From TrEMBL:
Name this protein carries in UniProt: NAD(P)-binding domain-containing protein
Keyword Disulfide bond in record: no
Secretion signal, residue range per the UniProt entry: none
Family membership: Belongs to the short-chain dehydrogenases/reductases (SDR) family.
GO molecular function: oxidoreductase activity
Keyword annotations: Oxidoreductase
Coiled-coil residue windows: none
């Protein structure tokens, strides 16, 4: 029997670590992507890929390596996030380059990841659970100073997930953009995210 593969783009110390551990406990092969590789004992069995997701072209290289070493992922978690804090007195005086870099991480690379996940899902057997997860927050629904760029990115990605979930609702794919809110609990994310491929979550997947 082929072992399931989970790809985590944005392996942070809270959500990323806990979700990787949760999927590994369910027998998944784990591929993790972060700006810096880690040397701790807990990551020794993971495929570690060092990458900067502010460059959307890096996402294709990530998928190519995962497919080459593990096979096509059936779960793709986009947990990467970038937020340039507003340092000036007015929002419109910030550097456009920082705005573009944040959007690349929060929206553009997420789109590329969804695109490549879709291609991988098409190569998996029908019984495989095909799940794309984006870690969101409440910024699409409210203003939090000084998080202008971050809010634009999260609002854009929320619309992306909503759109894709509607377009692929009859495909058997699962897409989730559930918000994190303020109390970020890595273990709770691990429990919730591992329920999604098995259809155990009662949350509406949009």
């Amino acid at each position: 029997m082929t072992q399931n593969v989970a790809l985590i783009l944005g392996y942070g110390p809270t959500v990323g670590v806990a979700v990787a551990q949760a999927f590994a406990a369910k027998g998944y092969k784990i591929a993790i992507v972060s700006r810096r590789n880690r040397d701790s004992e807990s990551e020794k069995d993971y495929l570690q890929i060092q990458s900067d997701l502010s460059d959307p072209s890096s996402v294709e290289l990530i998928f190519s390596r995962v497919i080459s070493e593990f096979g096509h992922p059936s779960v793709v978690l986009y947990n990467a996030s970038s937020s340039t804090l507003m340092n000036s007195s007015t929002a419109l005086s910030e550097q456009v380059a920082a705005f573009q870099s944040d959007n690349n991480v929060n929206i553009v690379s997420a789109y590329v990841a969804a695109q490549l996940a879709n291609k991988s899902f098409a190569m998996l057997p029908p019984q495989s659970s095909k799940t794309f997860i984006y870690t969101g927050n409440k910024l699409p629904f409210m203003i939090v100073r000084p998080l202008l760029f971050h809010g634009v990115g999260k609002a854009g990605s929320a619309h992306l997930l909503h759109y894709l979930a509607e377009e692929y609702k009859d495909s058997g794919y699962k897409l989730d953009g559930d918000p994190v809110y303020a109390d970020i609990d890595g273990d709770a994310h691990g429990i919730f995210y591992t329920q999604l491929p098995d259809g155990e979550s009662k949350t509406m997947l949009w």
